[in-house]
Design brief:
2 copies of one chain form a homodimer. Chain A is built from 5 helices and 8 strands; from the N terminus they run H-H-E-H-E-H-E-E-H-E-E-E-E. In chain A, strands 3-2-1-4-5-6-7-8 form an 8-stranded mixed sheet. Chains A, B: Keywords: Isomerase, Metal-binding, NAD, NADP, Nucleotide-binding, Potassium.
Chain lengths: 234, 234
Amino acid sequence: MSVSYVCQKTAAQVDDLLMGKFGYLLPQLVEQAGLAAAVAAARVFPRSNRAIILAGPGNNGADGLVAARHLKLFGYECSVVYPRRSSNPIMQSLQQQCEVFSIDILPDLPRPLPSSNTFFVDAFFGFSFKPPVRSPFDSILKEVVDSKLPVISVDIPSGWDVETGPPTDGTTVLQPEALISLSVPKSGVKSFSGRHFLGGRFLPPGLLPVLSISIPPYPGEEMIQELPRNDSSL
Amino acid sequence: MSVSYVCQKTAAQVDDLLMGKFGYLLPQLVEQAGLAAAVAAARVFPRSNRAIILAGPGNNGADGLVAARHLKLFGYECSVVYPRRSSNPIMQSLQQQCEVFSIDILPDLPRPLPSSNTFFVDAFFGFSFKPPVRSPFDSILKEVVDSKLPVISVDIPSGWDVETGPPTDGTTVLQPEALISLSVPKSGVKSFSGRHFLGGRFLPPGLLPVLSISIPPYPGEEMIQELPRNDSSL
């Protein structure tokens, strides 16, 4: 079963369709995306007991805030690194939910960083990211990479170009252990060789051909599916 | 592990907390509730291929509209019986999503009713229901009971008193095969002897004691859990 990889423009068009013609409300989409990210993280890191969620100021960060709440429900100790708090009412509600769940919301990485049993959920930037990574996200990402703790990225590894992939300008390259693409994978992750999940079971299957998008069918009642792993020798 | 059964007033207070102090947005709650209902239905009726969803005009109906979309994604043929369309913008969005998923939305039961391989999802009335059942819901429920097709109810079997249970005034008594309670079961279903699921994994576990609510822990990343079956001889 073939998998489409879409460019940034098509990803934006899919998002417009979801909240336009398809009638979805943003809180429905972030709830499902964040839940899918949390489920994927729990499958990848079943033996960890702590998650540090990196939340950006946009919709990718919204997915991260939702994922933090679900990971806490799944039994992980959670804290959220949320350096640029958004004034968007939906983001504020998601933040409030985390606070009610006793999830610490921090402006920077906790120090000292845990050395083990901990993973990062990278939800800094999503499909609308344009390089370069700016302060303070650049130094946080560098510290994340230097920590050698494992990472699962949401939609796109933060700092990667949505279309061309890992940065080649000498800046820090995040190489996450796992990735969960939402709706449909983006061109920039075509070469990603870690565990690759697909989540965001939003698209009407009957409309996929119209959208020229091909994604494998989800199994049963699953919110996520694992895509075949890239052979990095190709 | 003990399970609380709450009265109508407490159920309303929990709902107020969810959307007040806890900061949830209604579309997040209905998305999770509807997903949980769809997952429970798929577990109870794995060999059916058709679902008829009964959607009321309120939040219980909203859960039903969401469940219809997920059941369609799970591979069931779906139609929604939605006799009193709400002008609420969230309900209209949920209806639009069903239409995009090619789910028929009907004012009354499809006729002739299928005789097999079909189940009902009863999402007419939820925890704020006050008897009696009014037209046209009364005659639809009677036809559902007469059809002998199996039913899964969402939150409370429609027509049951939220506190005292099945109606005793001679009106039709819906006896669903399965029930999915949301957040916490209501007093009226204490005697329910079918398969009983709990969904709506919204409550912060740390606050359950403050709320004097006891629910068993959900397993792993599950959106639902099955409660021990009542021994109807008790």
